[in-house]
Design goal:
This protein is of the alpha+beta class. The chain folds into two domains: about 40 residues, no CATH class; about 35 residues, no CATH class. Strand 1 and strand 2 form a beta hairpin. The model has no long low-confidence stretch (mean pLDDT about 80).
């Protein structure tokens, strides 16, 4: 992942990011246990709660990156 990030940064600074998926399980005492980290997390949604969380995540990422239609037209 470091190589991919550095190669992207060399071309266009501040234009690369990585979204990772963390799978976490809670035990009976509500202690979190990290099971795995996914390099390419799924954005499929099986439930409405899942869809709401993932849609918000994608929207928030785009807002952080300031990827509006106007900004994209200026870059092109």
């Amino acid at each position: 992942m470091s190589h991919i990030f550095k190669s992207c940064q060399a071309k266009e600074p501040d234009s690369c990011f990585e979204l990772l998926g963390f799978d976490i399980m809670l035990d009976a005492k509500l202690k979190p246990w990290m099971l795995e980290v996914n390099h390419t997390p799924s954005f499929n949604a099986d439930t409405q709660v899942d869809a709401d969380v993932k849609n918000s995540l994608i929207r928030d990422c785009l807002e952080i990156m300031a990827l509006s239609v106007d900004n994209r037209k200026r870059v092109q």
